[in-house]
Design brief:
13 helices, single chain, three-stranded antiparallel sheet, alpha/beta, 12 strands, seven-stranded mixed sheet
Length: about 375
Amino acid sequence: MTPIYLDNNATTLPLPEVIETVAQVQREAYGNPGSRHSFGRQARRILESSRESIAAILGADASEVVFTSGGTEASNLALRGLARGTSGTILLAPGEHPATKETCLALAARGWSLRELPVDSSGLLTPEGIRDAPWGEVRLASALLAHNETGVLQNLALLREQCRQQRVPWHVDAVQAVGKIPVDFRELGATTLSCAAHKFHGPRGIGALLVREGSRLEPLHFGGHQEAGRRAGTELTALAAGMAKALELWNDNQPPRTEHVRVLRDRLQAGLTARCSSTVVIGADSPRLPNTLNIAFPGIDGEALLVALDLAGVACSLGGTCASGALETAPILTAMGFPEEIRRSAVRFSLSAFNTRSEIDEAVARVAAVVAGLAAAAGTLS
């Protein structure tokens, strides 16, 4: 039985061209980019070329790109760096990624207060919730552009405008969006934006934080003066080159790649809703990432379903991998108003350019068989 990988929101398979780029730079440009000899200058050229390429695709200036170890560090740097030892209220949406939520909780221990903005049943921020926020107290805001569990895409225009009017710095977690949908940092108008290469077939261990020119950001790490003093430590030239290569490949093939994963996602959704007796598609009426399907099978325990699907050779997730092991159901599903029966039976399938139509058809058959078997077992036990 050939395993089928449908957990690409957790991580993706690096493209062959990316692997070769990383290996080539490791072999041929291994110098420290901070060194002043020819080896260092060669590494510096590659590093800055990678920075410029990423900036151009994401609608930023090269000077606004800070390389990090990934999305978690980028969001930590943004939120803690923008907090700068002050205090006030942080606005954030329910169901934020742990990289954001746990950072905000750490800030709360230092005197900040947290205020969650409401979402509707589709997972979208409500206009009245944004307008009615206590803006006189707000000093920092954060929002997901694309939700890692539901795939729901937020329209952040109103939040942007309110933050602009109130002069509140705000962070956008675009880790699941970059490399899947067009993202324009300048158009978003955010103060900072985080992304991670391994979400779009790049190498693990590298990400970026975009920081709007003129913004003050207190660093997390101290030592050298790398990344314009915003992130100390010898830069990872080979991984930066791999990240740039992965983003360039997505950018060059964006329309066909997007259409490919959307067609397969819709085929998976249609197959499961047709073959399983009862399903609920989370965020079905909202704009979603083209590759993400969060679907519930009421009456089926999600943990049991996940284990059975793994045994059946289908890799998927109950939600954010970084939160795996938590006993509570996904906070975003609670905020959307779903009852516990649905929250506890929801699983996330996330596709990539590597998936094929035959894989999706086989996945539908395997998932339907597993769901039917668990339903029958539950009926026997009841």
